[in-house]
Design brief:
about 450 residues; Cytochrome Bc1 Complex, Chain A, domain 1; 6-stranded mixed sheet; 11 strands; globular; disordered N terminus
Length: about 450
């Protein structure tokens, strides 16, 4: 009988029926610093003849002066115009001829430029990014043109929609004493009032090698890449050390703020719960909770609108930054309904989480979704490069990327209950009420 049991166990192990420790995809990076402080991250994946060349600067809208906002976003545009050695308008031509493309994005905490190219064009990508850092053209002509581009973007993205400025109104309330209080796109008045020297000072302070990281992912020869990185980047002078502004908290406790705007038909509410920075250990649980609240059509927030026809729409979002964070719930509702009913309906769903957590089926469903999404990241060189750079600049280590899947799969109902109890309380929220202006 004993031999039979051993045989059965052996057979089950071979067929994979017995559970074994799950193996997650992992990456191994090569990392080092140049003499000028530029941190280099290289991840080699030769499965496809593509390379991503990215440079992330630890500068965003939070690094701006209160009377000179919008600089980081403007430079996102400006550094595509040309450099001392790349004639104006030719950067895109070079990339197109090489079969590649380039893009960039700016947040409150960082600015990221990246170029995707066939791997044999690695030198072109490195040269372009070194030119952006070392030889930008910052002139009255270029600044003037980019101001108009940003103004049009602001009009199209925010001003054309009566609801477009509501998020920045909530930001200003959440972070009243800190530079997260203004939007990344900044103030058009500030851009107009700024001098050419203002822009040059901002660039020279933040767009320096020791405030950036260079990340290569994809089909690279590491020894060859190191040689060209040194040739293109080590000649760039090191700048003064950049100190990120420490967070200054705003007013704590329950608040209700009323406002009105023209052009909206129904009242609108934003409920903001003070949370944590994206680097805090609870951030992954808050992200998981937000996914539960929004994932698939039968999510809890959708159920609110089904149960109460007076509530027209409910959404949630995590507004987590490097230095601070909030969870937002937004809703439009009929003017025949009291706003307290909306607040109560949302709070009931959060109280249920704080009391019961999630059922095992829902917990498993969400974990599978995260697992699949993060696994895909390991094969998307552009997305992976972005995550590696963010992880290094904000968490201090690229190895955070290897912990993304395990950290989500380790979330328990106890974590969900604990985090819900801690943050989703009436005395930890601010309510912004927006009514139609007559």
């Amino acid at each position: 009988m004993k031999r039979a049991c051993i045989l059965i166990i052996a057979l089950l192990s071979i067929t994979g029926i017995i559970a074994r420790e799950e193996v997650f995809p992992t990456i191994k990076t090569v990392e080092y610093k140049l003499k000028n402080g530029l941190h280099v991250i290289i991840y080699q994946d030769n499965s496809s003849p593509i390379v991503n060349v990215g440079v992330m600067y630890h500068v965003g809208s939070k690094n701006e002066r209160p009377d000179r906002t919008g600089f980081a976003h403007l430079f996102e545009h400006l550094l595509f115009n040309g450099t001392k050695n790349i004639p104006e308008g030719e950067l895109e031509h070079y990339l197109r001829e090489a079969g590649g493309y380039s893009n960039a994005n700016t947040s409150a905490d960082r600015t990221y430029y990246y170029t995707i190219l066939p791997s044999h064009q690695l030198k072109l990508g490195l040269w372009i990014e070194s030119e952006r850092m070392f030889h930008p053209v910052i002139s009255e002509k270029v600044i003037g043109r980019e101001k108009e581009v940003v103004k049009e973007e602001s009009r199209q993205r925010y001003d054309i929609n009566p609801m477009g400025r509501i998020p920045e109104r909530m930001q200003a309330i959440d972070h009243e004493n800190y530079s997260y209080r203004w939007p990344v796109i900044g103030s058009m008045e500030h851009l107009d009032a700024a001098s050419l020297d203002d822009f040059k000072v901002f660039f020279n302070k933040y767009y320096i090698p020791n405030n950036a990281c260079l990340v290569l992912t994809g089909d690279v020869d590491i020894s060859e890449a190191k040689k060209y990185i040194k040739a293109y980047f080590e000649r760039i002078p090191k700048g003064r050390a950049v100190i990120q502004p420490p967070y200054i908290s705003g007013t704590n406790g329950h608040r209700i703020i009323r406002d009105s705007i023209r052009g909206i038909k129904d009242p609108h509410i934003v409920i903001s719960y003070k949370a944590v920075p994206e680097t805090h250990e609870d951030a992954v649980v808050l992200d998981f909770i937000n996914s539960h609240l929004t994932f698939t059509g039968n999510n809890p927030l959708h159920e609110i609108t089904k149960e109460n026809p007076g509530i027209l729409k409910v959404t949630s979002s995590k507004e987590l930054y490097e230095m601070a964070g909030n969870m937002w719930f937004r809703s439009s509702f009929k003017d025949t309904l009291k706003y307290e009913n909306v607040v109560e309906s949302i709070q009931d769903q959060l109280n249920n989480l704080a009391k019961n957590g999630l059922d095992e089926k829902r917990l498993s469903q969400l974990k599978h979704s995260y697992h699949s999404g993060y696994t895909d990241m390991f094969y998307n060189m552009a997305f992976l490069a972005d995550m590696l750079a963010i992880s290094y600049l904000e968490w201090g280590t690229t190895q955070r990327v290897n912990n993304l899947i395990p950290s989500v799969l380790a979330i328990t109902n106890e974590d969900i209950i604990r985090v819900s109890k801690r943050y989703f309380t009436p005395d930890n929220r601010t309510i912004l009420l927006i009514y139609p202006k007559k």
